[in-house]
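Consider this one:
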Amino acid sequence: MRREGSVLDRLRVPVVQAPLAGGPSTPELATAAVRAGALGFLAGGYRGAEALREDICHVRGAVAGPFGVNLFVPGDGTVDAAEIESYAERVRREAAGVGAEAGQPAWSDDEWQSKLDVVLAERPAVVSFTFGCPERSLCDALHGAGVEAWVTVTEAGEAEQAAGAGADALVVQGVEAGGHRGSFLDRDGVGEVGMIALLRLVASRVDLPLVAAGGICDGYAAAAALVAGARAAQVGTALLDTPEAGTSPAYREALRLTGPTRLTRAFTGRRARGIVNGFMDRHDAAAPSAYPHVHSLTAPMRAAARARGDPDLINLWAGQGHALMPHGVSAEEVIARLAREIRAALDGARARM
């Protein structure tokens, strides 16, 4: 049966830890977020179904509070074969130049059905969806298991579609956000609205709890999102340099610099925001819209670059506010700092009124 009330009502701090698929996500990070009074999340993306089950059991055995699991909604795999092969040649040459290999561009549903079976059996408090809108029947199945269904949206029209499918809450992802765009369609110009404007546009169209995402790296930005109508702020970049995160050393080093970010398809074939580096500069213009084909193509090269500490060839996902992120402190301290700054920001705004 569906749980009474929203998970958001049970949080001591109006903060949601972003799922952070692809390495930074760990059970330890989700556990720390829950202990700090926020909503912790496990990334199901790129994890095998049984590994995801183990992660869920790990968190459940460590803390009693609610946490969530994020899943990628698979696309239909339609791509331009000629564009893929042309880009594959570029990646093969780049990889060979540093003694690495390129992978095979291929479509995968990322064990979609098996992971659905896991979350329906294990029943985390929330299952959130990125890259698309789940069917109404899936939301109904989650509700029957007592699980909330959240959907990541980047436009007001997507929000209406998700509400119609039975979503319990929406993660409203502004264009400032680090990592992949959660847009239902990966097209230039789609979902490229700033967080505050998007919150207001979505709030005018749907009556659902909203979680704001988009470059939030301190409590002042989180407070702005709350004032604009969000029930909580989702933070990812701000947690990347915590000891609980699985962020690679080369990635951490890049985050300590103040380089600009931009959207690119160069690493995975889907638009994502990261710190500009050499690989992005050399290949961004040629990268096709082809996810997960490009992801599997570049994955071995990126793994080799991480192993030797080379940030020039790896995806350095980060939000536009990454220069504000804390370094060298625990995830619990990051969230405690966010809570203090949210209170200070709201008190300051009241005083100015």
About this structure: The chain is about 40% helix and 15% strand. The mean pLDDT is 96.
